Amino acid sequence: MVVEEPSVIAACSAAAKFISENGEGFTAHATDSIMRGQIQILDCDCQTAVFVIEQSQKEIIDYANQACQSMVSRGGGVVRIIPKIVPCGDDLKMIDSNASDMLIVEVLINVCESMGANIINTVVEHTSPFVADLVGGRPGIKILTNLCTERRAFAKFEIPIEKMKWKNASGEEVAKRMIEAYLFAKHDIYRAVTHNKGIMNGIDAVAIATGQDWRAIEAAAHTYSELSIQCDLIFY
């Protein structure tokens, strides 16, 4: 773990020891390695474009997979194309009086065991002119998104409630206080940001030590937290 707070490492070590001695350890699993790339299309009839893209899924996927043939050979590659309209209202009109919406074409890619950023960017850069010609628009940004709602890992542990006792407090009392602290954060944004920072203390410290993109993890975690409050996420 790489972190400036020694207490973070001490806390993680103490928690791991407690779980090891009082439960059955951790269990974990992960989803498939599906990542998203995004292609911004401007100057087109968005409603018509969505219909055209939905009807041309196979054609677009076949074209996009030309840019990642080695990944396709390993069982990965582009698996789905999702068009969506992003309404910009008067914001876009400030630079183009005839525009109000933009089309975003999302490319879902199974990146297998790779992190996937470079191959995603290669695929969407290769595919964007093809999509723009298909709908009669102009390609803008084409790049990955770090919000990986289809690529998630899960870990959990279980401890009998009686094992939660601490000093003079019963296990039930300790569990009650933990839930009360959680509810404080759930309903107050100032508490939530500090609770979330505490979670990222452990995640970032491991991510940095193992050479991971901790900045992307941070950005995605905070956005995912916000999305889970605002709406029900739909996973493909």
Q: Could you describe the 3D structure shown?
A:
The protein is of the alpha+beta class and 236 residues long. The protein folds into two domains: 6-30 and 159-230, no CATH class; 34-144, Hydroxymethylglutaryl-CoA reductase, class I/II, NAD/NADP-binding domain (Alpha-Beta Plaits). Helix content is 50%, strand content 19%. It has nine helices and six strands, in the order H-E-E-H-H-H-E-H-E-H-E-E-H-H-H. It has helices at 6-22, 46-55, 57-64, 69-73, 90-93, 117-135, 171-187, 189-209, 214-230, and strands at 27-30, 34-42, 77-87, 101-110, 138-144, 153-156. The strands form two sheets. The protein has a four-stranded antiparallel beta sheet. It has a two-stranded antiparallel ribbon with strand order 1-6. The longest helix is centred in the last third of the chain and has 21 residues, at 189-209. The model has no long low-confidence stretch (mean pLDDT 91).
In a few lines, what is going on in this structure?
The chain is an alpha+beta fold. 50% of the residues lie in helices and 19% in strands.
